[in-house]
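It is worth pausing here to work through a concrete case rather than discussing structure prediction in the abstract. The textbook approach is simple: state the sequence, then state the predicted structure, then interpret. We follow exactly that order.
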Amino acid sequence: MRTPNTYPRILIVDDEVLHMSALCDLLRDHDCDTTGFVSGSEALIKMRETTFDLLLTDLMMPEFDGIEMVKAARLIDPDLACIIMTGEGTIASAVEAMKVGAFDYIIKPFKISALLPVLTRALEARTLRMENANLELLLHAHVDELAVLNKDLELAKTQADIANRAKSTFLSNMSHELRTPLNAILGFAQILTSETLSTTLDEKREFAQHIEEAGIHLLTLINEILDLAKVESGAMSLSLEPVALEDVFSECSTMIEPLSKKRSIGVEFKPVHGLHVFADRIRLKQILINLLSNAIKYNRPDGVVTVSCEKTDGKQLRIYVQDTGIGLTAAQLDTIFQPFNRLGREVFDEEGTGIGLALVKHLADAMRGKIGISSEIGVGSTFWIELPMSDPMTPALMSSAVEGAVRESSNDSLEKGQKTLLYIEDNPTNLRLVKELMRFRPDFSFLSASDGFSGIEMARLHSPQIILMDINLPGIDGIEARQILSEDLRTAHIPVIALTANAMASDIEKGIASGFFRYITKPIDITKFTEAIDAAMKLK
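Step two, the predicted structure:
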């Protein structure tokens, strides 16, 4: 007998209230945890709050049909099993349902005895896909990638032995780090697939868990190696713009809290109200999270980590991450930024790759910054990163700077009825700037979203006249989000203007080629910004 918290969670969407309620009740009687909605948009909102195993949706609904419902739901959860119900099914609609990812297609009216086997197969397929197929495909992909990478590494090692001893040591350590988790993955996998080595169900679960843990470690290592290689070769694209330290500190505090609580380490962020640096927001967070993680992991019991900031001169800000750990010797400090050098700390049985600090230094250099460390044995260590200061416009300066440029255009373009502009941007400072600019356009109401998926849903729900889109967004980037909008009949007609710090010639060419109505680079030229808004409105 299954306990209630193990019942399959099923989301039912049907605009016929009686049919939806009856189906919910019937499936509850068959050990299913059901949630029902008559509105597709309300169901999608619920999906962002709660994970479901299966979606059971009607095909013909007034808001949007079941096929659109499946497409939107799978954007939120690609592993969701989906089944479409209809009383007016056709071969064409069934084929379309399969194309968008529906598992099955069932014709109304149906008996519960006919539906239950379909649900069972869909749930089993989802479980197998998540626990076996995806893991196995990813594992094989990484094994193939590592096989190619190891061949390249061996060749590079031979050449490095002749060129310089340091490079030889680097490659030797890299090969060791890659093979360690790979050994666990392949070893346990061979046991599980062996016909001569018998294992119990509990042992199979334990070995599968070891494979997953080694795979996660391996993926982290590969990502850090690739990031390091990109930075060293200059291939990593950085989006340099004014970044509010207060916002970054707040996000880092939230991200690091689980680790600090687990280790009973206090973390204090000193106030930095109004301070900004010119940096790549995502990479700055990556640097701070790396430094904070090390400060927590190698701290003493009940230790403290303090994050603070000070101006070093009129143009630079220095961010400090100070711990109360064991400290480092002079010899350790000399090699601290070398890749794969864990300074002997591997004896602490702490997870790590030894690449993090090397990557941190390269990222700081790429953002025109500096990084350093001071340490005292038995007292602790202090890492610091120094970056250029940035002074974004205050609201008062913004008003005086933009009022004349915007007012003239506003008067010319004002029409009867208020229009809507949607800005998809994850940087709060940039959101505030554009909101301030649009304050001088009383013919517009202003909406915003902080990631691509939310922006897509808001565009579908509110049908804005114009969409402003950042390129570097969490989840999916602006180019992918614009592509999804262009393929949706409800949003394909809306002009999308790129507003981004990706200002290289290749970035602009790529943006224009991907279909943006205009491509505006930061910092914003107010005249070009206003002209783009007006040009987009002339399309209406």
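Step three, interpretation. The first helix runs from residue 17 to 28. Residues 393-416 have pLDDT under 50 and may be disordered.
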